[in-house]
Amino acid sequence: MNRRILYAGDAHLGSAAAYLAGVTARLAYGLVGPYTAMGMLCAASVLGQWLAKKLEHPTLASTALAGAFAAPLLVGDASDQRTLLLAYLLLLHSWSAWTERQWGWATARLVGIAGTVAVAAVWLQNHAAIDVSTYLHVSGYLVGLMLPELIAAVRGETLAKSRVTLLLAATAGVEGLLWCLT
Predict the structure, then answer these.
(1) How far is 34 from 38, CA to CA, in rounded Å?
(2) Quick check: helix, strand or coil at residue 80?
(3) Angle at 72 between CA 90 and CA 61, to 5 degrees
(4) pLDDT tens sequence for the chain (182 residues)
(5) From CA 12, how far away is CA 174, in angstroms rounded?
(6) Is there a contact between 46 and 91 (Cβ–Cβ < 8 Å)?
(7) CA nearest to 146, candidates 125, 160, 132
(8) Where are the alpha helices (DSSP H) in 27-131?
(9) Fewer beta carbons under 10 A from the terminal one: N or C of the chain?
């Protein structure tokens, strides 16, 4: 059997075990609080990303990113920590954009976009009142979501027309909806 496949399997299992340790410590036993559990899950995700690079395994990188996005939904604080959550999502989105740019792993970027939008949508559903704070947070979030494309444009890099069109349309739609509701 190919050693590379065995190492990749071991890497998946190792990062999954570290991730599950954080989930179990928080949810099953209550040994740690939400912020410590988030830190544990993020550390497991960073481990997965590092192993993915060492093994040149983009699937592991995407799985690690998905785990980082799932962390606030699994073990996060139930209170409305909107600024912290949206900053965390933008950090992860930037991580996925960097992974795509550095290593050419486009799937990681797709996971980044999907994870960012999914977790933000859950937050909006659970916590967002239509007020100025929500409008400002969502507006900042949308600018942050477009930031990798804006930076690439400033650098003179070629941008995927479909991605830019989708981001601009989504931003205009959400901004228009929020403006009407506030």
Answers:
(1) 6
(2) coil
(3) 65
(4) 556 555 555 555 666 666 666 667 776 778 888 888 888 888 888 888 888 888 888 988 898 899 899 888 888 777 888 888 888 998 998 899 889 889 999 899 889 888 988 888 888 888 767 788 887 888 888 888 878 877 877 888 776 676 677 677 777 777 776 666 65
(5) 37
(6) no
(7) 160
(8) 34-55, 58-75, 82-103, 106-127
(9) N
CA distance linking residue 31 with residue 143, whole number of Å = 37
- The answer to whether 89 touches 120, Cβ cutoff 8 Å, is yes
Across 54-93, b (16+ Cβ under 10 Å) vs e yields ebebbebbbbbbbbbbbbbebbbeeeebbeebbebbbebb
Structure tokens at 57: 């395994």
Cβ neighbours of residue 96 under 8 Å, at least 6 residues apart? 65, 108, 109, 111, 112, 113, 115
